[in-house]
Amino acid sequence: MMADAWDYKGRAAVRSSSGGWSSAAMILGVELNERLTTLGIAVNLVTYLTGTMHLSSAASANAVTNFLGASFMLCLLGGFVADTYLGRYLTIAIFTAVEASGMAVLTVSTAAPGLRPPPCDDPPSAAAVCVAPNGTQLGVLYLGLYLTALGTGGLKSSVSGFGSDQFDESDAGERRRMARFFSWFFFFISIGSLLAVTALVYAQDHLGRRWGYGACVVAILLGLAVFLAGTTRYHFKKLVGSPLTQIAAVTAAAWRKRALPLPPDPAQLYDVDGAGEDVKQGKKKMPHTKQCRFLERAAIVEAPPSPAPCTLTDVEEVKQVVRMLPTWATTIPFWTVYAQMTTFSVTQAEAMDRRLGGFEIPAGSLTVFLVGSFLLTVPVYDRLVVPLARRLTGNPHGLSPLQRISVGLLLSTLAMAAAALAETRRRRQGAPSSVFLLVPQFFLVGAGEAFTYVGQLDFFLRECPRGMKTMSTGLFLSTLSLGCFLSTAIVSIVHAATSSGGRRPWLTDDLDKGRLDSFYWLLAAMSAANLVAFLGVARGYVYNENRLAAADVPIKLLAHDDDDVVLVHA
């Protein structure tokens, strides 16, 4: 029997007859289809918006980044709903169905002639005139996109956590199997990404969008059927509440008590019991820190009938999240650079020679170099960089999480410089340049993603308090979301600024008439400035392990839900 998990009938789960690999494997297909769908839309959407819907390059790029940004930001909503109301199982099931409905709407939008504007050469007498899409056509298209984004955000927030729920962390063998699950989880994400940028993009370009999107609907529904078939074998865990609620409660209580004086001795503030553990929440008492003392007012005990105070441990957990915010903010621009690989870099590829023998490479499939670079960099880092870094730094892990992120930010800066140089060369050549001129920018961003992605994940998993461990995924995914939204804002500002006064804008439908190279140089300069800011932030950051050691608090390592470790009090 397992003390913290139940079966589908609400009985204590029996490890021998439920959970484990047989259950976890039925969850993997949901994530594969999510990656296939989201990336398959993102990397090839700009060509549909410019070529079929007749939107401008800037508007198309913003539509793509807004879709990606919404997908990642809605993970916060999905996580809140799962932790507070529905649980991970129902959240995955419901939002997978929502994703399938969104893809069905997209399929109809791309298949029905009345939901697309007429081609630019129809009628022939108006060959040079492209009719803009009407409100209904755009409305149906965006309905499909954002239903898909809602479904993606909801299920993505819970898939990895529900997979880890199928293993008993108190058993050493189960923990090893959990680690294998996360390896396979990453493998399925990679397979979904590769299928999206190759087979799915090819189907969209050569068979038609309706066939590519329709195949996604079928795949999602099949994955959902397999997921539901495992219901009787899953482990289910109780709702623990959202860390967003805790942050809101501490902030609101501190503001309400802002006029009250803080006691000179922190021991006078309300906290978990003397044994150091909150039985209800499963939390360990955290040592007091001197930063952000305003928040400690939330733990001041008031006379009845005032509301019960927050515990000082709750306050310290919120403080730790606040300490992480500067690092969080300075990783956002990396994902702004990453967003260009699915927007303007695809537009560049469309204007170049994509022939490889007798085969023409789809413009969206250039992102295969992005995915391939990521997959190549991870083992190279583990086999070559880590041993070298161990000798140079003495760190058993090679590079620290913040050092890994800094390498990723440097590579993203170099990628924008490479993109600007490639665009300058393309403009100067009379004949169409080979599309392989763009490989360095895709490769550098992919390698940068391997450093930044893994570094961020490691940082947020390790540094988030144990009592707020679900916050780690939300913080990480929010940087992806805000990076996409920042790209939208930059594109809008640049387009407005460079087209004012009758000037020719940098971002035009015809790249030869614009200055995309200048836009890339701007992003390179912004990335370089952000790298400097990040290095300053990283230099002043103290890891939990070092902070707790300085406070003489014993610590131990525990397996984390997302295949990593976090520090908690012994």
UniProtKB/TrEMBL annotation:
The chain crosses the membrane at residues 63-82, 88-108, 181-204, 210-229, 361-381, 401-422, 434-455, 475-498, 519-538. It is found in: Membrane. It comes from the Eukaryota. InterPro entries: MFS_trans_sf, POT_fam, PTR2_symporter_CS. GO terms for biological process: oligopeptide transport. Its main location: membrane. GO terms for molecular function: transmembrane transporter activity. It comes from Digitaria exilis. It is a multi-pass membrane protein. Belongs to the major facilitator superfamily. Proton-dependent oligopeptide transporter (POT/PTR) (TC 2.A.17) family. PANTHER family: OLIGOPEPTIDE TRANSPORTER-RELATED. Keywords: Membrane, Transmembrane, Transmembrane helix. It holds the Pfam family PTR2. This is Uncharacterized protein. One of its GO terms (cellular component) is membrane.
